[in-house]
Amino acid sequence: MAHIIVVGNEKGGAGKSTVSMHVATALSRMGHKVGTLDLDLRQKTLGRYIENRTAYMAQEGLSLPTPTYHDLPEIDATSLKPGENVYDHRLSAAVATLEPDSDFILIDCPGSHTRLSQVAHSLADTLITPLNDSFIDFDLLAHVDTDGETIKGPSVYSSMVWNARQLRAQAGLDPIDWVVVRNRTGAQNMVNKQKMEAAITKLSRRIGFRTAPGFNERVIFRELFPRGLTLLDLRDLGVTGLNISNVAARQELRELIKALNLPGVTVDF
């Protein structure tokens, strides 16, 4: 069976689609067959990213390793039994379509709580949660006291992951490997970064997730989107003199893929 990677966080702007595209493309470059789904049915940022990549390759006569992308199929609601949910069937059908030809299926979830996102989390073998270095984002995982250090209890997103874990346990599936990725970090405000690191470390032991390094805030990520490119594609385009920021970003991606510890994956870039 394909290993399912879900990229989820109920807050927009955490960099989910950037992480999704770079992870999926990195796996494709390492020779793995990767299928992708975008559950943000309105915005479809990951879907648009891959469409841009396909169009750019056609325009420039390039052939770059690229994950497969599928829209969720439409389901005739009249064919469902009483109590069945149309979104459950759409997601199940999409996964079933991708699974025979995929080593990995990566699912990018919307920045909000939806039925599709909830079901996707219960399918996750690996769950990646990008998190901005901010207590506003941290509030999705846990409520903290006014000192910014004392954890009062889990918050809405952690509760949703807990429910997904319970569903997997009831189905006899392996536990979710939950990886919280500190994303879009910057060099400023070291005191805040230290407080965030302490809070995340404490919470990881309490509710059971691992932490991994993510991407610093860099202009390059926004510049690559219109062409559907990732950091690993630059050398194929003849870019030989990568600047310091681009080299550092490539190293961040390498460290992220290593930290995910995905089955059968040896990082070779």
Brief descriptors of the model:
alpha/beta, 16% strand, seven-stranded parallel β-sheet, 269 residues, two-stranded antiparallel ribbon, 9 strands
Q: What would you note in describing this structure?
A:
With 269 residues, the chain is α/β, with parallel strands linked by helices. It has nine helices and nine strands. The chain has a seven-stranded parallel β-sheet with strand order 3-2-4-1-5-8-9, sandwiched between helices. Strand 6 and strand 7 form a beta hairpin. Helix 1 packs across helix 2 and helix 4 crosses helix 6. The two termini are 26 Å apart. The model has no long low-confidence stretch (mean pLDDT 90).
Structural class: alpha/beta
Q: What share of residues is helical?
A: 40-55%
Quick one: biggest sheet?
A: 7 strands, parallel
- Measure the end-to-end span: 26 Å
Low-confidence regions: none
Instruction: Tell me the number of helical segments per DSSP (H or I, 4 or more residues long).
Output: 9
Q: Which word captures the global form?
A: globular
Q: What is the gyration radius calculated from CA atoms?
A: 19 Å
Order of helices and strands: EHEHEHEHEHEEHEHEHH
Strand content: 15-25%
What is the overall pLDDT average? Answer: 90
Number of extended strands: 9
Strand order of the largest sheet: 3-2-4-1-5-8-9
Question: How do the strands and helices of this protein lay out in sequence?
Answer:
Blueprint: E1 3-7, H1 16-29, E2 34-38, H2 45-60, E3 68-69, H3 86-98, E4 104-108, H4 115-123, E5 126-132, H5 135-138, E6 142-144, E7 151-154, H6 156-170, E8 177-183, H7 190-207, E9 210-213, H8 219-224, H9 244-260
